[in-house]
Specification:
With 664 residues, this protein is α/β, with parallel strands linked by helices. The chain is 29% helix and 21% strand. The chain contains 15 helices and 26 strands. Strands 16-17-18-19-20-21-22-23 form an eight-stranded parallel β-sheet. Strands 1, 2, 4, 5, 9, 12 and 14 form a seven-stranded antiparallel β-sheet that branches. A five-stranded antiparallel β-sheet has the order 3-8-13-10-11, with no helix packed on it. Strand 22 (430-436), helix 11 (442-447) and strand 23 form a beta-alpha-beta unit.
């Protein structure tokens, strides 16, 4: 009887082997992974449905099951590195449902599994996601359940290595770009994958506390200065007659000229403060918040309706604002200063009014601005940086030069956010960390092949604090490590740096200091400070920070005075974190770094031809690959069947032998 029990156990193991070997099926649309074969926690039996793949699906409840969040985790193997589309077939029980998505353990910001009401529908939640060779996972975690999950489909789009992404030839969308714009873009292309440019955002001039503390604590200055066109927006120009929230806030264009004159690279975002006619008012007739009319909380605008009627008053007001900004940017164009221009940022984000009208209205607005600035005002100094996480909001290759990602990790979480980087590689544009709240660990970034073109650290609480440095988002040690890293480009190492002062008549103070002290030691306190206890990750919401209440009186609102402090533009932390692993102490002296070439050689026609042929051969549904996978699947299924049959015969033989022995 003991032998019979062992045989039964072997039989069960054989059946399990058969199930594991036949989890995935392959056809010309990709590889399918059944939910019922995945790892999951639920509180209900599988759903039997002839319309589901294999006639079965699992139930994903809302919330927790026995104290654990309900989830379904698909695990799959990638044999060829490249780009893939990831889709899930699901059914919303009773109503449309949204559940959380993780890829390889990282929560996707602003992306969810959308399940339609009471019907099966396949939802492609990631397009052109780059996946390395090896095992990967997609986890659906209960959000707004109840949902039935059928399968995950993994479809290969094209084969390309990360090295090919870094080394491919990128083109500017504007064929009439100025020589200086082409030179800057060529430099970004040549340095892409080899180094990361440092950047710092500020609302003030280059002598503000953010910039000066970086210089004091690291001995360096950022190669890129981030600025905002908010101050030169018509409605804010009116408000500045009554109150200036920051020193030199209104001198933003002069600040750009000053930093560019020293060889600094300039990037502009635009917190587009709408006209007063759009602003909401309270019961007393006061504007709710005239300084934050870029937020939907404080304005009334139906962007979809506005973009559908070019003759409307609202549309004309948007054009008026664009005209005003174009005139300001023309000042920089006339001085031949190239600009990394990032308007309508964080596409699809409901925290800005331009993200509330849907993707079609957003794309129309972007293209209208591009056409006006490029073809009407001939701002050929602009390099267009699109910033978003949702592929459906992408304006198109002919309107975009660089793709950016805004990420706000928790305090002292220095991970380089590889998943977000790779999810944007499918656009086949240079990718940058256009806003960040915590500096990325450069060693980790290169180790994970997550080499952003540049990082742009945000202002306020995300920079070096004057006191309580243990509460900083980035430690002093990490600031020094990053700014003195051999693969991080700072202002003095930029090929555009003139080493002259603003008047270009003698060496600048910064370079004079560098020459006087050839290897400056960053001014930091080497004492190890205890790490604060981490707080739970917040739900991914966007809440702008508020500036301290000004000493001056606020601007009048319809004859009245609004004493509420102004909300300055800010991006809140996103829940898009990986496990941080801060490493290394600051070097005692900066290391000289190689400067990438900014040469602009003539195009090699033969190389272009080879690149074109290579791209043409990228077949989304490679028949040979499909046949190979199908053969592998059939072979595995055949082997599994033979094994199971052998086990059955073995069990039968053992049982009959046991029966005869019992009779004897």
């Amino acid at each position: 009887m003991k032998k019979f029990g062992i045989s039964i156990l072997v039989f069960i193991i054989g059946i399990q082997i058969f199930r594991n070997l036949s989890v995935a099926k392959v056809d010309n649309l990709g590889t399918y992974y059944e939910a019922e074969e995945a790892e999951f926690i639920t509180n209900r039996e599988n759903k039997k449905d002839d319309n589901a793949s294999n006639g079965e699906a699992i139930f994903l409840p809302s919330g927790k099951v026995n104290g654990t969040d309900a989830y379904c985790k698909f695990t799959f193997n990638i044999e060829q590195a490249g780009f893939y589309n990831l889709s899930i077939n699901s059914w919303g029980v009773g109503d449309e449902k949204k559940n959380l998505l993780d890829v390889d353990g990282t929560r996707l910001q602003d992306l969810y599994l959308n399940s339609p009401r009471e019907k099966w529908e396949e939802h492609t939640f990631l397009k052109n996601q780059y996946l390395d060779v090896g095992v990967h996972s997609v986890t659906v975690t209960a959000g707004y359940g109840y949902t039935y999950l059928d399968y995950l489909r993994v479809e290969q789009v094209s084969v390309m290595s990360i090295e090919e992404i870094y080394n491919r030839k990128y083109e500017l969308s504007n064929k009439n770009a100025t020589p200086k714009a082409k030179e800057l873009f060529q430099y970004l292309q040549n340095s892409y994958g080899k180094s990361i440019l440092s950047g710092q955002f500020t609302y003030e001039g280059i002598n503000n506390t953010d910039i000066q503390r970086i210089k004091e604590k690291t001995g360096k200055l950022p190669a890129i200065l981030g600025l905002d066109l908010l101050a030169v927006t018509p409605s804010v120009q009116e408000l500045l007659k009554y109150w200036i929230p920051y020193p030199n806030f209104e001198k933003v264009m002069d600040t750009a000229v000053e930093y560019a004159s020293q060889g600094g690279i300039i990037t502009f975002c635009w917190h587009w403060n709408l006209d007063f006619s759009f602003m909401k008012k309270d019961a007393n007739g006061n504007y709710t918040n005239a300084w934050s009319a870029y937020r939907p909380d404080y304005v009334n605008i139906d962007l979809k309706k506005v973009m559908a009627n070019e003759n409307s008053k609202e549309y004309k007001l948007l054009e008026r604002d664009m005209d005003a900004i174009a005139q300001q940017l023309k000042r920089l164009s006339d001085q031949d200063i190239p600009i990394l221009f990032r308007p309508l940022h964080e596409a699809g984000g409901s925290w800005f009014w331009w993200g509330t009208g849907g993707e079609d209205a957003y794309i129309k607005l972007w293209r209208k601005m591009y056409d006006k600035f490029t073809n009407e005002y001939h701002l050929n100094n602009l390099i267009w940086v699109w910033n978003g996480d949702k592929p459906n909001w992408y304006p198109g290759d002919e309107y975009v030069d660089i793709c950016g990602v805004d990420i706000y990790n928790e305090k002292k979480d220095y991970n380089p956010n590889s998943t977000s980087f790779k999810s944007h590689m499918g656009y086949k544009k240079i990718i940058t960390l256009s806003e960040v709240g915590t500096l990325p660990d450069i060693d980790q970034a290169f180790q994970n092949k997550t080499i952003w073109s540049w990082f742009m650290n945000w202002t306020g609480v995300h920079t070096i604090p004057e006191t309580n440095s243990e509460e900083a988002y980035t430690s002093l040690e990490m600031w020094s490590k990053v700014y003195n890293h051999e693969k991080v480009i700072t202002l003095d190492e930029s090929p555009f740096h003139t080493h002259k002062d603003v008047n270009n008549d003698h060496i600048c103070d910064f370079c004079a200091t560098q020459l006087k002290t050839e290897t400056p030691t960053p001014s930091i306190n080497p004492t190890n400070r205890p790490e604060p206890t981490p707080s739970p990750k917040p739900t991914p919401t966007r809440t702008p920070e508020s500036t301290p209440k000004p000493s001056n009186s606020a601007p009048p609102q319809n004859g009245n005075t609004d004493n509420n402090p102004a909300n300055t533009p800010s991006s809140s932390p996103n829940d898009n974190n990986q496990n941080a692993n801060p490493t290394g102490n600051p070097p005692t002296s900066p290391t000289k770094k190689p400067t990438p070439s900014i040469s602009n050689p003539a195009l090699d026609k033969e190389q272009d031809k080879n690149n074109t042929e290579k791209e043409d051969n990228e077949n989304p549904t490679d028949k040979k690959e499909i046949k190979k996978k199908n053969k592998n699947y059939l072979l595995r299924a055949l082997v599994s069947t033979v094994i199971s049959l052998a086990i059955v015969l073995l069990v039968k033989f053992i049982y009959e032998k046991w029966k005869k022995e019992k009779e004897i």
